[in-house]
Each structure stands twice: as C-alpha cells, then as structure tokens.
Amino acid sequence: MKKLLEIRFKWLLSLTLAVLVITGCDSDDPDPVDEPELITTMNVTFTNTADATDVVTATFRDLDGEGGNDGVTTNPTLSANASYTVTVEFLNESDTPAEDITAEVREEDEEHQVFFISGANLNLTYAYGDQDADNNPIGLTGTATIGAAGSGTLDVVLVHEPMKSATGVSSGDITNAGGEEDIRVQFTVTIQ
Predict the structure, then answer these.
(1) What angle do CA 28, 33, 35 make, to 5 degrees?
(2) Could you give the percent of the chain with pLDDT greater than 90?
(3) Model-level pTM?
(4) Within the chain, how many helices (H) and strands (E) appear?
(5) For residue 25, is pLDDT > 80?
(6) What DSSP element (H or E) covers 3?
(7) What separation in angstroms does the CA of 48 have from each of 13, 51, 82, 151?
(8) What is the dihedral of CA 90, 33, 130, 52, to 10 degrees?
C-alpha cells in the first residue's frame, strides 16, 4: 500500500509540475506599446528655387514638451510670387546629443505623413516631393508655391499611421487621414 501511495504521489507531483511548466510559458504580458517619440523641435526650411541665398527657416521649439513652458515659434517671411524647396526636420533636443526624429519618420515612411494646411488668407500651396515604398506622400521634402503678398497661418502637422489611401489624403487633405498627430505647429507666414 505504501508503494502504491508513493507511485500516486510521484505521478501527481509530475502532473502538477507539467501543468506549471505549460502555463508558466504562456505569456499574459501585453504586446509592447509603440510609444510616440518626444518631438521638441520642428524646423521647416524654405529655399528659394530662383535664389539659393534666400533661405528662410520657420522653427518651433518646446524643450520641456507638452505642458510646462510654452514653446517658442520663429515665423517665416517669404517672397511673393516665388517657388521654394521645402524640407522638414523633427528633433528631440531634450536628449544630448539631440535625437533626429526625422530619420525615424523616413525609416517608417509608410506610417507617417506631413500635412501643410494653409489658412484662408495665405497664398501658399504645397506639393509633395517624396514618397514611401507604396508611392504615397511623406512630406519631409516638397515645393511651396507662393502667390501675392499678404499673411496668414500655415499649420504643419506630422501624422502617425494616417490612412494614406483615404479620399484626398495623398494630395495633402488631412480631413480623412485619421491616425494620431505626433506634432502640430501653426506658423504665421508673411509674404512680401
């Protein structure tokens, strides 16, 4: 009888260990969340296509991120009836050295798009100059066509995971883009 109890105990112990090993390997940990990068700085550089010395950079810098101190904006003044090559740069300057978020946007190009939204009174149109692997726009480079003198607002928006195939999105209309805004900056543009 003692031998039978010993066998049953060993069998029960083996079964318990097997169950623990099998359930111990099952991970209940949630999938890691892709945390958005901290973007403290946006530089939008306009280079006049007819005069390479006419370079204007619009800048937004908020080194402590959302909340805390307000960001500082440097607004651009552009020449009327001109064309500008546009480049956009995103940085995290809270790190030393500063982290170039632009490189990540370029690497994950199918998951990002930069939108340029001109206010009603601003004579500025933007055309994309770069594409992702699916031939959809990215917006890190492009061309701005400037019209008559005046002033108005220009919102520059980086969207993470936009629906690039939605109506109007590939031509720069943010209305149906969805996704999540990584950063939105409104510049006041003067055209003279």
Answers:
(1) 155
(2) 74
(3) 0.81
(4) 2, 11
(5) no
(6) helix 2-25
(7) 79, 5, 7, 18
(8) 0
> C-alpha angle 115/41/135, rounded to 5°?
30
* Alpha-carbon span 118 to 114, nearest angstrom: 13
Q: What is the pLDDT of residues 178-189, one digit of tens each?
A: 999 999 999 999
Return the higher-pLDDT residue of 34 and 101.
101
Please name the amino acid found at residue 52. Answer: A
Find the helix or strand (DSSP H, E) in which 126 lies. strand 124-128
Longest Cα separation, the chain:
103
Q: Which amino acid is at 190?
A: T
Which residue did the predictor score with more confidence, 105 or 19? 105
Q: Which amino acid is at 145?
A: T
Q: Where are the beta strands (DSSP E) in 15-123?
A: 41-48, 55-61, 72-74, 77-78, 83-92, 99-100, 112-118
Could you tell me how many residues make up the chain? 192
